[in-house]
Amino acid sequence: MVILLSMVLHFKLYSILNKKASPPTEKIEKSIQKNEGILSDVRSRI
After folding, report:
1. What is the pTM of this model?
2. Exposed site from 20, 30, 39, 43, fewest CB < 10 Å?
3. Which of 38, 9, 13 is CA-nearest to residue 24?
4. Which stretches within 1-46 are classed as H helix?
5. For residue range 22-37, what is the model confidence (pLDDT) as tens digits?
6. How far apart are CA 28 and CA 42, in angstroms?
7. Are 35 and 7 in contact (CB under 8 A)?
C-alpha cells in the first residue's frame, strides 16, 4: 500500500514537472516507462 501511494505521488510530481518542461527528456520518459512497469507489477500482485 505504501509503495502504491509513493507511485501516485511520483506521477503527480511528474505531471507538474511535465507542464513546466515540455517536451520531456528521454531520461524522464525512460523513468516513466520503468514506473509504469512497476505499477502494473504491483497491480498484478494485488
Report:
1. 0.32
2. 20
3. 13
4. 2-20, 26-45
5. 555 677 778 878 878 8
6. 21
7. yes
